[in-house]
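Quick one, tokens below. Sequence please?
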């Protein structure tokens, strides 16, 4: 019965977040259009040097688009609460924080899948790409397990807007930019300077991109993808509880110091 209540509560947060998207549908169309054009532009840049590079860059743009949506939606969920003026009501409501956070995470995954699917359809038709040899099952599994890792990172980053109204939001964007730099989205990590390259090996996006390219471009089998899938799954199972714990501690501090008010 308690589990059912948590499930209903999480679904309610999913519905609320989609209602917010509907409320700002104009801006959502703007961002979607920008993401589509960005993916197409990156693919056209790659087309100038050959089809292989074009596909390499397109996969990078698509995967990063999905992962960045997860990270962005979760990490800025607190900022949305402040902008809407509901942060005090949400955090003082008689609902478990786990229910609240899981609802936000489920919304981010669903939203990311919908947007990424739309972009993928447009890109495939625009460049007339054949995906018959791709391992689509492996692709879906990798997206799911890598999503867990970014959910955990998003929960950690979400404490920044909780503790600081404006500076926290800026910090989450810096965090995302660093992940983009070190994860080999548009290039191999070997070209990075030696002093920053070690950071690439602790970014889950690095392994996600490699596995996605192998599944889509090389048709890698499930057996070949299994080590990376298990690695990402393990990272996700570690990061999500850590993210939940850090967020709970930050919430306690914010309530104790009076930082939940809209003005921060």
């Amino acid at each position: 019965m308690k589990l059912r209540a948590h499930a209903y509560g999480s679904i309610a947060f999913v519905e609320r977040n989609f209602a917010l998207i509907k409320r700002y549908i104009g801006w959502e169309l703007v961002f979607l259009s920008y993401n589509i054009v960005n993916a197409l532009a990156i693919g056209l840049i790659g087309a100038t040097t050959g089809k292989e590079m074009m596909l390499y860059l397109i996969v990078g743009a698509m995967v990063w688009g999905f992962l960045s949506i997860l990270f962005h939606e979760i990490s800025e969920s607190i900022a949305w609460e402040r902008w809407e003026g509901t942060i005090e009501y949400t955090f003082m409501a008689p609902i478990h924080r786990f229910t609240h956070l899981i609802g936000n995470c489920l919304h981010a995954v669903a939203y990311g899948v919908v947007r990424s699917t739309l972009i993928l359809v447009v890109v495939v038709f625009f460049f007339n790409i054949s995906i018959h040899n791709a391992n689509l099952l492996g692709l879906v599994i990798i997206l799911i397990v890598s999503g867990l890792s970014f959910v955990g990172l998003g929960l950690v980053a979400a404490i920044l807007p909780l503790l600081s109204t404006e500076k926290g939001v800026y910090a989450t964007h810096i965090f995302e930019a660093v992940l983009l730099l070190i994860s080999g989205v548009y290039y191999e990590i070997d070209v990075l300077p030696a002093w920053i390259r070690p950071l690439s090996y602790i970014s889950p996006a690095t392994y996600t991109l490699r596995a996605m390219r192998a599944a889509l471009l090389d048709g890698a089998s499930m057996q070949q993808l299994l080590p990376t899938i298990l690695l990402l799954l393990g990272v996700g199972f570690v990061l999500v509880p850590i993210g939940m714990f850090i967020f709970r501690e930050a919430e306690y501090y914010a309530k104790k110091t009076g930082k939940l008010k809209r003005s921060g």
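The chain has one domain: 2-257. The longest helix spans residues 222-257.
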